[in-house]
Design goal:
By secondary structure, the protein is of the alpha/beta class. It has 13 helices and 5 strands. The chain has a 5-stranded mixed β-sheet, sandwiched between helices. Strand 3, helix 3 and strand 4 form a beta-alpha-beta unit.
């Protein structure tokens, strides 16, 4: 089933359907409604047509304003749907770029950076706002939705996992979906070339393992985000309700809409 989730596009990485998982209620999350990808700045015309064929009515762009300015999105011709974007702009460069420019990329440092990033993600002001608007859109709209950030792995991965958690998808299944990024982008096969690019950019040598730790995903990263939600709110469900405004009524609407 994992392989069938991957949607091959010309120039948009990490595209897949994150529906069609079983839920604790004995039903399934609908397929063909929930899509996740990397950014759309390099999308080909064929990619844009393919996304239009998905029937997307809402695009959720989890990138910072500075990232959007650097790599503006392409959209299908005539797209008139809702675009939900991060409004909070701290004025600085993306933390991962600062890390790469200032720190030697080792397996240990890469993994440490990612754990720290995931612990900060849930309560970042921009994320709180855009995550809340995403869940409202899930409860209000009828068309398909696509969520993306830059690589479609971290911010996107966390939001997809929270969606699965709300819908009652088993923890092992939501982790499986999260980890599918590593196969979707063939990280193991691309690591040597990426290491060369990083060397050209920073002048420092990075091992394949270091590249994989930094540019891949691990269950421990997602665990770190869930852990901080529990530490600060008592549970992931409490985080959804108290931090993101997903009350019982909204939860019921989302479950009713997305369950089959």
């Amino acid at each position: 089933m994992s392989a069938t989730r991957l949607l091959r596009l010309d120039a948009v990485d990490n595209a897949r359907d994150y529906g069609d998982y079983a839920t604790a209620a004995g039903r399934h999350v609908r397929s063909g409604v929930l899509f996740r990808t990397a950014h759309h700045a390099r999308a080909s015309d064929a990619d844009l047509q393919r996304m239009a064929d998905w029937g997307v009515g809402t695009v959720v762009d989890l990138r910072r304003p500075s990232e959007r300015r650097h790599q503006p999105s392409r959209r299908p011709a005539g797209f008139s749907g809702q675009v939900i974007e991060v409004a909070h702009d701290d004025g600085g460069e993306a933390p991962h770029l600062t890390f790469l420019k200032t720190t030697d990329l080792t397996e240990t440092s890469g993994r440490g950076f990612m754990i720290g990033a995931y612990r900060s993600m849930p309560f970042d002001p921009g994320h709180l706002d855009v995550f809340a608007r995403y869940f409202r859109a899930l409860g209000e709209g009828q068309a398909a939705i696509v969520i993306h950030c830059a690589a479609g792995k971290d911010r996107t991965g966390l939001l997809a996992a929270l969606t699965h958690r709300l819908l009652g998808v088993a923890h092992d299944d939501l982790v499986e979906d999260y980890l599918l990024t590593n196969a979707a982008v063939d990280l193991a096969g691309r690591a040597p070339a990426i290491a060369k690019q990083l060397h050209a950019m920073t002048g420092r040598v990075a091992s394949d393992a270091a590249v994989t730790a930094f540019l891949g995903v691990e269950a421990a990263y997602l665990d770190a985000a869930f852990a901080v939600m529990i530490e600060r709110g008592g549970s992931v469900d409490a985080y959804l309700e108290q931090a993101l405004g997903v009350d019982a009524a909204l939860r019921d609407r989302i479950v009713a809409r997305l369950s089959a």
